[in-house]
Amino acid sequence: MPRRSQRLASRSMAFVLAGGRGSRLHELTNFRVKPAVYFGGKARIIDFALSNALNSGIRKIALATQYKAHSLIRHCQRGWNFFRAERNEFLDILPASQRYNEQTWYRGTVDAVAQNIDIIDSYDIDYIVILAGDHIYKMDYEEMLQQHVDSGAQVTVGCLTVDRHEASAFGCMAVNESDRITSFLEKPKDPPGLPDDPEKTLVSMGIYVFDWQYLRGKLMEDLGSESSTHDFGNDMIPEIVAAGGAQAHRFEDSCVREAGKPAYWRDVGTVDAFWRANIDLTNFDPELDLWDTDWPIWTYGEVVPPAKFIHDEEDRRGSAVSSLIAGGCIISGTEIRESLLFTKVHTNSYASLERVVLLPNVYVSRHARLTNAVVNRGVHIPEGLVVGEDPEEDAKWFRVTPGGVTLITQGMLDRREAAK
């Protein structure tokens, strides 16, 4: 019998799909999966899904990993090791481990869940929340769980409301007046409008709520299917929609935000989007509130000293304006504007940074001048390097994006040095 006296979140688990490579981030995911990519000065992308679950009251979490997972696993071991099994709470990491045969890894999002049925059974849950681990947003899953139970749906799909003319890039939902999903269309040329606003469309966030026993049966069916692609978006969700059992949940109904602010959700799956989302945090009043103590973004907190600014001379002043500077940084005679520096960055005299994202442990030598750039972890910027002023020259050595952002890695700099 369901335990009605408990909050829905306490009777639920979050299953986070964190195995995607994120190939559009190019060299940023050469050594780490997309959910392990850094974000916001000290966090990783995965921290948003995990923090949402924790803040929503979900204390049973599983994380399915596959592609280049070491950085992600290490981050979770260091930063998410505070769950206590004796309180019936945990974060289990579930790497693809060929549990069914020696040839089969996770074949898709459905298969990643199906291969762990026995583990999920041991959690003794009523509901399961399936999450993508690679988006930036703040959301109370308890609200979505409550709608799922109230609607009696077989699946509830988290949906963003977007302008209809922009919806063709997504999986789109046609809904009726009660937000029951009547059809699911993958990247349609003519997206369906909403009953209450024909110029808007609901698109899938890749977030699903199921009754566990119902989903368990569907997973067993999928395991035995030779025609399935073992994917929620391609196979299971359209099938449930066709049977009339899918409900849409609008993100704005559960988004955690200040009154009057828009619902914030970002897919930082390209270098341009990654750069823009980080630089937007330097705005006077950013849409994403990382200072909210009521809904904190938990992460691994390195033990580092405060940021340090030194030198106060003309053309050699350690300063930062409209910027975020993490702990452990030393800003030695560098002028910084509208930039975000992660932990343990060291910059030197007469250098300048404008609209630049520096990942941890970057070293910037004297007289370097960087504009509109992303610099990967551990890179040593050589003395006098100028980036962001001559796109043709930059493109000879670095990756220049369609939006004009330059991505710099140590390998690129080494090739540039070797060519001299």
Radius of gyration computed on alpha carbons: 23 Å
Quickly count the domains.
2
The CATH architecture classification of the largest domain is: Alpha-Beta Complex
CATH superfamily of the largest domain: Spore Coat Polysaccharide Biosynthesis Protein SpsA, Chain A
Helical content band: 10-25%
What is the number of strand segments? Answer: 29
The coarse silhouette is globular
Helix segment tally: 10
Q: Unreliable runs, pLDDT <50, ≥5 residues? A: none
Q: Could you tell me the mean pLDDT?
A: 93
- CATH class type of the largest domain: Alpha Beta
Under CATH, the topology of the largest domain can be stated as Spore Coat Polysaccharide Biosynthesis Protein SpsA, Chain A
Classification by helices and strands? alpha/beta
Descriptive terms for the model:
420 residues; alpha/beta; Spore Coat Polysaccharide Biosynthesis Protein SpsA, Chain A; 9-stranded mixed β-sheet; 28% strand; nucleotidyltransferase; Glucose-1-phosphate adenylyltransferase; glucose-1-phosphate adenylyltransferase activity; EC 2.7.7.27
